Predict the structure.
Amino acid sequence: MTATVERAASAPRVRRGGRGAWVGAGLAVVAVAVLGYLPLLTTRGTQVDLVGLFSLVVLGTMWNLLAGYGGMVSIGQQAYIGVGGYGLVYLASTVGVDPFLAVPVAAVVCALLAWPTSYLAFRLNGATSPSAPG
């Protein structure tokens, strides 16, 4: 019991809040107010650009969480995204298929490409992340 009391007495003191926290909270309130008022000051094109930018920021953050902190290893889904994207553009612009119809057609083409590849990929074994002990 005395060892617990001694450890508690020697533990570092943690301060929550303080001057820096108040300054940060004030800046956050100002930033939210400016961003809330921003649509009244900008054009529709700027708003569309900002929505696209913030969407990419969210996607980048998500990828950082999955790959960086979660240890998820990518084994080629970018290839299927590329095949689907290029297939969609090719079908819509060159072949003349309606873009809304080209989306599911490109998805089916990707699925047909991924199906035989999955037989190889699901049989892989070994290290699951670059930091795994070998």
